[in-house]
Design brief:
mainly alpha; 0% strand; membrane; transmembrane; Lipid desaturase domain-containing protein; Lipid_desat
Length: 229
Amino acid sequence: KRLQETICLLVCITLMAFNFMQLVMHFKSENWYTILVCSLFGILVADFFSGLVHWGADTWGSIEIPVIGKAFIRPFREHHIDPTSITRHDFIETNGDNFAVTVPFLAHMAYKFVSLSPEEINKTYNWECFVFLLAIFVSLTNQFHKWSHTYFGLPKWITFLQDMHIILPKKHHRIHHVAPHETYFCITTGWLNYPLEKIGFWTFLEDVIERTTGNKPRDDDFKWAQKQN
């Protein structure tokens, strides 16, 4: 597992560096506005997916489910009991899995940069900016989450990014950690938490699933928390 995480990190960072250089080489200043919009959209999509995964793991399933119960759901249950445990994980353990998810997409982007003509790259450039920022922010979601639980020793540039709400702020994420952990699931930047809460997005999904399946949201989370107490 450790070897797999390390390899994925190295491959992913190499692909990020290569694709970034290609994006810089093909950048055209006259398209800056469209590029900015596509890049911001990539960050928003990353934030949404972080919320969707977080909501799914927090709200449904059980740690008793074979394979994914212990490997995927249990860490979310434990995180509600000991939120600062994530701060005791090193960079590889914190980010290895997320970096692995983005490798195929970054590799496909790199393949296009080396195989397509400059004219063809210009036609897909805005899309590549979207995918690149999406991959960057998906890769670093767990790191941003970790920093939101780190209360001492953070460099000033990280606290500045948190204060400017460019990445997930501490006070903002603290809202999620108030029992019963039913809101503010997005943990990349947290930009979408307020609008999704205002329209009742997660509550709507939970109502639909409960009416369809009969399963109650966070039922296992409540039971597991009571066992730990």
